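So, read this over?
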Amino acid sequence: MTRNNIISGLDWWTIILFLVIALFGWLNIYGASYTFDQTSLFDLSNRAGKQFLWLGIACVLGIAVLFIEGKTYEVTAYLIYAFWILVLLATPLLAHNTKGSMSWIDIGPIKFQPAELAKMITALALAKYMGRYDYRMRSWRDLLVPVLLLALPAAIIMVWQKETGSALVFASFMIMFYRFGMSGYVITGGLSFALLFICSIRYGDVALPWGEGDVGILLCYIVLMAVVVGFAWLREQDWKQALVIVGIVAVTYAAGLIVNIWHTVNFNFVSLIALVLAIVYFTAMAIYRRHFNMLLVTVYVAVALIFCGVCNVVFDRVLQPHQRTRIEVLLGLKDDPAGAGYNVNQSLIAIGSGQFSGKGFLQGTQTKLRFVPEQDTDFIFCTVGEEWGFIGSAGLLLVYLIFILRLLVIAERQRDNYSPIYAYCVAGIFFFHLTINVGMVLGLLPVIGIPLPFFSYGGSSLISFTLLLAVLLRLDAERLNKLH
């Protein structure tokens, strides 16, 4: 493509939205890091000046990427992926310990986090593999290679670099998998495992008000039974089978309650017996009708039971102490307003004090007096809430929503197999970052420390997000030259 064709083919609405978010973020970084002796937005001795410099560098790199032919990314995707895996493996050997993480490399005066670029590189590799003309996601076997491409960098970042937040972002690729053929039951299964984990940790030590047993175990079995009944009713369209399963569970629990009148009954075992009887019936019906896909539910229940058994082990022995504390505070197991809950408490105070219209630019008291840690990085959304109020916060979220919807429009209008897969990866990454960051600032999700795209202070994240978007814009600019 010629230079004029590239310029005319660019999606300028997306570029405008990017600039609006980035410039408003820069303004809020100035507000969050402002001291009374500062005089300029461009002063390189403070974070606002540095962020403006990073924004300029990111734009220059983004423009350079726009002039690289889109086919180059597809051709070199595997090579770049392999090289970056080596970079991720080498990072802890070169990095210094930063709050328990070994993911930052010092390059002169600059700190660089390779994990940020790993998301874009993984998206390119996934698009390369799944964009083949002979690839179709027909069964779980077709997911093996994509999941391996996804899991390898995520595992290195989480285990080797001890950077949980960046590793969890790779879960955002599930949105792309779902769009291109992955069964919705996979996402349902994943969400149910998250619910099982919460029930096990939050209510595992809460005793039942009747008999013996734990509320957590009872809730876990209720979740599993809901999945089994839901599959029989919604997937198999067999309401009679669903009623029989509900009946088996009801009769088993009724028998347990009756016996408990005379002798104390352990309802953990009653729940297990009810689940086993229901699964035996469900499995027998699947074999009798030759609906062997139904046996996946039996496998799911078996894996889920093992998962429930090891939840506490994972929580106590795998998670880092600060991660356990954050989850305990979020679930209400621990009240630690001066420790793990301090960031969130101060953030909520800052946001609440902004009320409807905010205190005004540079007028925030919580942020100016430094009550909120990380208020210009991971917790920058609280600065928006305090100084710009509900109007500013809602307006920013609306701009993000329009931006993500625009990415989906770009994804759906592509004319090849490669570009839409990459586009959905990009949309998923931005959506995940936005949801998790705002959720943790509002105290709705655990604090895992991931930046707000184009908004939080930091050169690595700003450059990586800009390059991620620039590659998509280049691929989109070439769509008119491709045949359906």
Q: What stands out?
A: The mean pLDDT is 87. The radius of gyration is 25 Å. Strands lie at 105-107, 110-112.
